[in-house]
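anyone seen this seq b4? input:
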Amino acid sequence: MLVVVNKFNKHLYVKEMISNHQLRKRVFSDILGWDLKIIDGMEFDQFDTVDAYHILHLNEFGQVDGSVRLLPTVKPYLLGDVFSYLIDSEEVPRASNIWEATRFCADPNMSPKNITSVLLLGMYELAVALGIKQYLSVIDVRLERKIKACGWLPSRLGRVHTIPDGRIVSNSLSVGDTYYINMLQKANIPPIPMLKNLYEIMYKTNVKEAA
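predicted toks r here
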């Protein structure tokens, strides 16, 4: 099951958010070896703010086995405020209809094989609901290849940089029906809503609020 959590409904998903931060610790700290802030077995950073949205994939036991964090670029965000050197343009994108996707991760043992497609489709649904036209990201080139294979084709905003943790690049994902259809076909998923709780945030949330 796929759900979206933000400041309006997070009180309903306390256990799920704990599970999410535990997953992030396992993936980014234990497996990838990133030097990150760990608190009580959970990973956090300075962009886990009240403005963040989290798309969570829950398994049959209610545990999070895949997730991604989304932030409006009119607020502080990872690419714009930490990794702006990855963008060739002199101007860092900041607009209410441009959001950032970070902390894209999945449990290598527990998540379904099509978890990348499922999370991407959730991102697409949220974009349509909120009027988001583009996602930006700082991304490892290995995940970039996975996203391409799922049918959503990213555009690079700069050249690839090598860091101790791997090879990273900045890119953008434009929201369009063609990509949505491609992803459904490649994942063999019927065109039904993926986000099961979108109604919980829609009456309080819109893109203008992010500004």
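The helical segments are 14-31, 78-81, 115-130, 141-150, 177-187, 199-202, 207-210. The CA atoms of residues 21 and 29 lie 11 Å apart. kinda curious what u guys think
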